[in-house]
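G., the chain you wanted modeled:
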Amino acid sequence: MTIEKMLYAGERDGAFDIVAAWTNFTIRHMTSLARFSVGRILLHLLAMLGDRCVRFHVAGTIRELPWVAAAPALLIRARIRLIGALVLYLARPLKHSSPEPSADPQSLATVLNRGDVLLSHANTRAAALIKCITRSPWSHVSMYVGPLEDGPDPLCIVEADIAAGVRSIRLSELNALQVRVLRPIGLNDLDRSRLADWVVSRIGSEYDLTHAWGLGRNLFRVPLPTRFRSRPSTIAYSATRFICCSLLAHAFALVGYPILPEQMRVSLTAPVDHSNLIPGDFERASVFEVVGPINNIL
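Predicted structure as tokens:
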């Protein structure tokens, strides 16, 4: 704010009279103070003692303190960096573990059809945490969508990765200690194509950390006040963020194959809520048949 605008506002709102009453300052004194940032802050603070226009003086004080105005942006930036560091930490492999050989890509290639679901468990901190929370042998779920390029080892699997978001990987990049292949029952080629095409179209979407946090909180049964509880999640075809389970749940809902959490299959009155899906729910779903293990696929 310029000196002229501040002086005009002070005279209009009677702020000068308030400051004068507290300090015996004259207009000349106040004009001199208003030439400096510290002086303008002092005038705003003095005027607030008896002025009703508190917002005006608070805004004026903040304008003279750029670091205060920048604080929200700095906090958001710090939060993003903290979350990024946590994600990278969880994506790292466990050092003390000595993993067995992963599933053989050639063996997998002979059994996979487009639209098949792959349950897996990897040697990462995130995988160990998910197994502990869900009490399931599976920590991840992905979909085989068929070759997306030419070559002996093409991109052919789509997954929602905690660090990279929704991406396509090769069979050789699956990096799983255990793999189980599930095939949807009764789907024709058209439905399989719709499944795979929709999942492929979501490549590049972000990982939904908010969903993952809410799922973990629900599984731990952490009590929260009603106003902080998330509402039941329904399938939204315009969704732009996913975890591994929600990505596939959206795809199967598109072809009329809803994948439901375990508690919803035993309670017909429970509200539809796909936000509580975990990888183990795919193995227990009646709409799939197991076509693995084969060889070293467990």
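Residues 105-290 form a domain with the endopeptidase fold (from Nostoc punctiforme) fold (CATH 3.90.1720.10).

Shout if anything looks off.
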